[in-house]
Amino acid sequence: RMFSIFIASTTASGWQRVPAQPALAAVQASLVVWTGQRFVAAGMLDDGSTGIVDSSDGQTWHGQAGFGPGSRVQGIAVGPAGVLAVGAQDGNARSWFSADGLAWTAAPAR
Fold it and tell me: Strand 82-89 and strand 71-79: pairing?
């Protein structure tokens, strides 16, 4: 089983490990962005699909619903309109968008 270790600092020095919590135990996060209001992290769940977690302070994290079975996020970016995640689902290219980093909409499959 894979796992992530989250660390945080309010001063960019004196980094501390974030306390263990259920939302972080479920995902091996490999991508993190700051939206201006919250951190959004994406990574792999035990079943190989994508897990999403978010935090407004970098200390307390909340699990999100994710993008469903067969999903894999390979990139995440923030812009003026919101957060864009790109990757694949069931072997087909796929993207997801969120205005706030909390509610996600999948682009239509082609």
Answer: antiparallel
51's CB contacts (< 8 A; 6+ apart) are 26, 27, 28, 29, 42, 43, 44, 45, 63, 64, 66
Sequence-distant (≥ 6) Cβ neighbours of residue 103 within 8 angstroms: none
Q: What's the pTM value of the predicted model, to 2 decimals?
A: 0.88
Given a cut of 80, whether residue 42 has pLDDT beyond it is: yes
Sorted by sequence, the CB contacts under 8 Å of residue 3 that are 6+ apart come out as 25, 28
Which of 36-40's residues contact partners 24+ apart within 8 Å by CB, and which partners?
Answer: 36/78, 37/100, 37/101, 38/100, 38/101, 38/102, 40/76, 40/78, 40/83, 40/98, 40/101
